Description:
Layout: H1 19-26, H2 34-46, H3 50-69, E1 76-80, H4 90-97, E2 102-107, H5 110-119, E3 127-132, H6 138-145, E4 156-160, H7 169-180, E5 188-192, H8 200-212, E6 232-233
Parallel strand pairs: 1-2, 1-4, 2-3, 4-5
Antiparallel strand pairs: 5-6
Helix pairs in contact: 1-2, 2-8, 3-4
Amino acid sequence: MSTSEGGAIAKLDTGVPHSARLWNYWLGGKDNFAVDRAVADQILAMVPEMVASARADRAYLGRVVRHLAGEAGIRQFLDVGTGIPTADNTHEVAQSVAPSSRIVYVDNDPLVHAHARALLTSHPDGRTDYLEADLRDPDQILTGARRTLDFSQPVALTLLGILNFIPDDTEAADLVGRLTAALPPGSYVAISDPTNEINGETMESALRLWNEGPPPKWSYAARPSCTSSSPTWT
């Protein structure tokens, strides 16, 4: 098992909301602060189904990783935007199917980093690592991931509930392209995103609430996007 330092840990600002902690609150976790709960509750007042959506997204992660480690035979996972660790994390699901699986987690919240150091353990036959990095810096992500993953072998890249925090569609597509360009043949990409195709006006109002509030120090402005998708072979 390995846990990277990821450089100096940024000071944790408990007065600024962060998407990872909102998600933790919606999942029923305790690793969040009053400001996170306040924003999360405002969004819930507009979109009551957000809790069900968050839990469905978590279940989707489990199905994707179980399929990739099982039927697809993938043994390496790059989880970008992992969020605060909870039950059935990527490494737990993958290594329950294939103990030799290697997983690199990536997030940009110091609170996620603090929990990752304590919670992201690995089966002795596999390996886990945590990288404190920003989705907007694919080169840093890939450089850090290469310490644990062998990019001459297939890798599963997961981007679950994170691309919607890149407000510009062109930039989001470019970031995905830069990450997938480094993946060898036989790799997979799994993406889940919210959508404004359902309850569009309400979703737009919730996004405005998020974007017009205090700027999240380690997060991004949100944008509506597509629905959840199945893992894609590259």
